[in-house]
């Protein structure tokens, strides 16, 4: 007997063109919010792990593929990643959607992370590196853009207060894909 998995609700706005000019704040969490990219502490704010450096590099490589896309601010946290992505098509007829950017990033960073695990340079993971979906916010005003940029820049210093910190938000089991 075949069991039917629950349908996942999309958090994207129906009918919205996520490739149109604008800024988008994205947050991508690790699967089960595992601490795969180092562990920030008061003494080690800004400390860097090889896996965190890989995430930054892979995201930059994905962004560089698309002439209409830039990322002025991003940060790798122990169990999540934030980026402020700007799409400015100007003379370019098309641009990727935010979903396509995130999918490419997840695909390539997972491949790279597996290589790091095999080399013994990164923490092993269970089934997936990244959660199945991601959170996005369409940036609508200059004030919104500025507040998000400040949030991203200050996030490592505020790790103990972060909603994704293990003491605030214990890892959870996700439903199977």
Pairing-aware structural class of the strands and helices? alpha+beta
Query: What is the level-2 CATH architecture name?
Result: 2-Layer Sandwich
Shape: globular
How large is the count of helical segments? Answer: 3
Helix content: 25-40%
Order of adjacent strands in the largest pleated sheet: 2-3-1-4
Distance between the termini: 18 Å
Model regions low in confidence, pLDDT < 50 over at least 5 residues: none
CATH class: Alpha Beta
Q: Report the order of strands and helices.
A: EHEEHEH
Largest sheet: 4 strands, antiparallel
Estimate the strand proportion.
Answer: 15-25%
User: What is the strand tally?
Assistant: 4
- Mind telling me the CATH superfamily name? Transposase IS200-like
Enter the CATH topology name. Answer: Alpha-Beta Plaits
Rg result: 17 Å
Tally of distinct domains: 1
Would you give an account of this structure?
There is one protein chain. The chain is of the alpha+beta class. The protein has one domain: Transposase IS200-like (Alpha-Beta Plaits, 2-Layer Sandwich). The chain contains three helices and four strands; from the N terminus they run E-H-E-E-H-E-H. It has a four-stranded antiparallel sheet, sandwiched between helices. Helix 1 runs antiparallel to helix 2 (98-118). The protein is globular, with a radius of gyration of 17 Å.
Short key terms for the protein model shown above:
177 residues, alpha+beta, Alpha-Beta Plaits, 4-stranded antiparallel beta sheet, 3 helices, 16% strand
Can I get a quick summary?
With 177 residues, the protein is an alpha+beta fold.
